[in-house]
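If I may wish for something, please sit down with the protein I am sending here and say whether C-alpha cells and residues agree:
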Amino acid sequence: MTETHTETPPKGHQVIAAYLRLLDNSPGVYRMLDAQSRVLYVGKARNLKKRVSNYAKPTGHSPRIARMISETTEMMFLTTKTETEALLLEQNLIKQLKPHYNVLLRDDKSFPNILVSRAHDFAQIKKHRGAKKEKGNYFGPFASADAVNRTLNQLQKVFLLRNCSDATFDARTRPCLLFQIKRCSAPCVGLISAEDYAASVADAERFLKGDNSEVQQKLAADMQAASDEMEFERAASIRDRIKALTMVQGVQGINPRGVKEADVIALHMEGGQACVQVFFIRANQNWGNRDFYPRTGAGADEPEVLEAFLGQFYDTKDPPKQVILSHEIENPDLMAEALAEKLGRKVEILVPQRGEKAELIEGATRNARESLARKMSEAATQTRLLKGLAEAFDLDAPPARIEVYDNSHIQGTNAVGGMIVAGQDGFLKSQYRKFNIKGEDLTPGDDFGMMKEVLNRRFKRLLKEDPDRKTEAWPDLLLIDGGAGQVSAVGEILGDLGVEDVPFIGVAKGVDRDHGKEEFYRPDQRAFALKRNDPVLYFVQRLRDEAHRFAIGTHRAKRAKAIGATPLDDVPGVGATRKRALLTHFGSAKAVSRAALADLKAVDGISDALAETIYDYFHEKG
C-alpha cells in the first residue's frame, strides 16, 4: 500500500511575496483571493509594488490584516494612469464584489429632489427621484420623501404653484380643490397671468437657492401695498404666505448661517459596528438627515471606514462644495481630488475643531451614536427571532437571508410577483424585486402558474450569475404565501432546477383566515401551527404582510400606468409633447385614430411626415 501526500498550496505572505517580481511602481488596484477564488479584499495603491511588499512581511500587521493575509492564495492586479483613477476603480469593485475584509456601504438608494419643471409654459413644482433627464431646475438632495413633501407643502402655501400633471392642467375647465384651499393660483383657467405666475416661480427658486430674506422682503412690501390700497383680503392672503414661509424655516431645525452648501458626515463605531449620519445642508437650510450602517470589513478603523463610505456614497451622487467630517480620513487630498473631478469644481473636505461647523458635527455625531444604540438593540432582538425561526422550522442554522414571495392581480390582469428580503438587519429593501408575469399560456388567476414563473426566473438567474454561491444573494429560507399546493409547486420547480438544499415553507391563513391561526406547510410533512403568543409567529406575520404590501403596491402602480396609457404611446415619433397636442386638438386617442390625414397635418407641432406615420399606424392596425 502506497501512502500519498497532498501538498497544501502555499498561502499568506509567501504567496504575496512571489508577486513582487511581476510588479512595477505604477498606481493601480489589487485583489486578494482565497482558496475558493473568493475575493477577500480590494485595495488601491499609489505604488503597487511598495504596497504589496508591506503585505509580504510575515509580522507587523493588525489582527484583521494578518487574518486576511493568512487566507490569501492568489492576487490580481489592474494598473491605472493615476491614483485618483485607482480610487474610483477600487470603490466600483468593492460595490460589485462585496469582499469580506472591505468596508461596504449596503444602502445606496438615490435621494429625492424638488424639480421646477420647465416642460410647460406654466412651470410645475414636484418631487423627483432618479436621473435628471426632465427639463427644469433641480433642488436637493433631500434626505427623505417626507422632507421633500413637508417643504413642497409649505412652498405651495407660499408661492401657489401648480403640482398637477401637464395633461391634467391642459384638460381643466374650472379650478380644482387646491385653488379653493389657497394652495394654487389656478393658472390652468387663467386666474393668474403668465407674467405673475412666472414671478412666483422665480420667487420659489430664489427661496430654494437660499435667498430667503429677499423673498420675505418682497412679500412684506406686497402686503403693505395691498393694505395701503385697502385690499385687506389680499393683504391677509399675503400675510398667511409669509407665515407659511417662516414655517418652512422653522421645521427644518438647524439652519446654519455660515454654511451654504455642505454634507455633514459623522461616524460613530461601537462593538465592531458603525453608523454614519449624513446631514444635507443646501441654501443655508437643513434638508434632512439619513443614517447608514456600513459593514466594517471585519474590523477596519475610523479613517478607513469613513474614507470607504465617502468613495461609495458619492459614486452615484454629486458631492456638494464642502464635505464636513467628524474624523480625519486616510487620503483627504486624494478624495478631494476625486470628488472635484466628479463635480467639475473644487470640493473641500474639512474636519472642524471649533465654530459653527464643529457644532454641526457634534449634533450629527450625537445622532449617529443614538441611532447605532437603537440599531444594536434591534439587531439583538432580530438575532433572537431568527434563532427562534430556525428552531420552529427545524433549520440547520438561523437564516441570514429570508426571501418571501407573493403575487397580486385582479382576475388575472396586471399580474405581478413580489419578492421581499429580510435578514439580520431587518428588511433589506434594496434587495426587493418585482416580476411582471409574462406567461401568455397562464389561465387568469392561476396563482400556482404565477409562482412557478416567478421562482423559475429568480433561480435561473441565480444559477447563471452565481452558480458556486460565492455571494450573499442565495437565500437560506423561502417563505411562500400559500398552503400545500403552493409548497408542492415550489418543490417541483426547485427540483427541476437542481436546487435541493434551500428550505421553503408555505404560510397559509387558518380556517377563519385570521391573524394568529396561520398554518405552516413543509414538503412531505403535516401542517402545523405556532402558539398565538409566540414571537416567531408575529415575526412571520410581519414578513408575510410586508411581501403582501409590496406585491399590492407594485400591482397598483402597474394598473395605474395601464389606465393612463393610450394607443398613442406606441406610435413612433410621438412623445409627451406631441401626444398632448394631439389629445388637446382631437379630445381623445380614439378620435386621433379615426382622424383623416389632412386633419392630422393641421395639428400644431405635427409635421406632414409624422402625420402620415400616425395615420398609417392606426389604419394598418385596423
